[in-house]
Design a protein that fits this description.
4 strands; elongated; single chain; alpha+beta
């Protein structure tokens, strides 16, 4: 039983580590614009989890900051990954 739990724990940890590597992204500054990209599920099975609500939350955060970060205008770009393998 303990061996099985250790195996599950190791598998879970490895999966989380790999997921974290693929999910890292950075905002980019190009000229006088800070570009923020958001790739999410807007139309498939997981759209209710984040999708349009996540886009709206980011837009609200940008509005709270008056559309400016580090003295530069914020440009928000988002896309639907369509949950295709």
């Amino acid at each position: 039983m303990k061996t099985k739990l250790k195996g599950i724990a190791k598998s879970t940890l490895a999966t989380l580590a790999l997921a974290g590597l693929g999910a890292s992204a950075h905002a980019q500054i190009s000229g006088d614009v800070v570009k923020i990209g958001f790739l999410t599920d807007m139309s498939s099975v997981y759209a209710d989890i984040d999708g349009p609500a996540g886009v709206e939350a980011i837009k609200m955060a940008i509005a709270d900051m008056k559309g400016v970060a580090a003295g530069k205008k914020i440009e928000f770009i988002y896309a639907d990954h369509q949950n295709k393998a």
